[in-house]
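Continuing the batch. This is chain 6 of the set; chains 1 through 5 are on the previous pages. Same settings as before, nothing changed between runs. Recording input and output for traceability.
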Amino acid sequence: MPKISVIVPVYQAEKFLRDCVESVRQQTFSDWELLLVDDGCTDGSPVICDELAQTDDRIRVFHKEKNSGVSETRNVGLDHARGTCIAFLDSDDRYEPRCLETLWDLRERAGADTAACAHLNLWADGSETPEPVLPAGVYDADAIREKIVCPLLGDRLAQPVFNGFIWRYLFSAEIFDKLHLRYEGAYLEDELFLMEYFCNARRLAVTEEPLYRYLQNPASATHKYMKDFQQVFGRFMERKEDLAARYDLTPDRPQWRENSNWAGLLIAIGNEYAPGNPKTLRQRQETIRALCARPDMAHAIQTLTPAGMSRNKQLAARLVRGGHFWLLSQLYRIKNRI
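Output for chain 6:
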């Protein structure tokens, strides 16, 4: 049984896949298995996956007939993983050579169930900027709840927002198995996954060394128009409500619903004015007006004044609170050149 299972969801990744896999093969830590899960690719990725598996018996490939999204694809990997620990790697990203060794040793030395590292953001202009998870150290269950679970629950507006990136962690397979923890949804799925996991983790060891190389890819799903975003967000809030109830989280962040709804509203506005939306400008404006009139959103708008956000989001929030939907449309029309 390998010590670490690395799960890579693969979709239309022929441009990046070989470099991604090579970054695993070049690890200074060798006791791993790599699970490549082909999410119904129509490019050359399936062939590349099979070719790579023939070069190293630690690589296993799973082909799905139809594309179903990153959540179900990661779940296939989790269903077949055999490692003591689980790591995730996106197919357009890479590990630094000492990533797995550092995380494994960090976890072992601290007697922790989980380890985490900083990452490098790779930008289109060639620049790189590090982003930490938390300050280096060892966190007990109470600190994990305050530093990770609660920010994911209800601190979604003021900068810096705690990002729900699952690939910064070395997870305990035992916790996954105990909870039968799996992904659901096409967007914001990482946040809920991390919340539930860390409600059950007892000890986290963190390094500020950036060991993961994250490509800021403008073609990723997070930059595209989602026609069903409101339904996706509604389901997200239902699941968040369930987690808050099961783990008694509301006393720690009493306004988590208002905070989360404001965050979702601002994402929805950005999504409504994203390229690829076939609606006219007036139709987009009316969609936002109707969304703001929903009871959950109206309550958040009336009872919570967002603060600490970026200048653009702060301006958008002021326009929403004032009911200036025409001006809001003009702001995004200029910003996105609609």
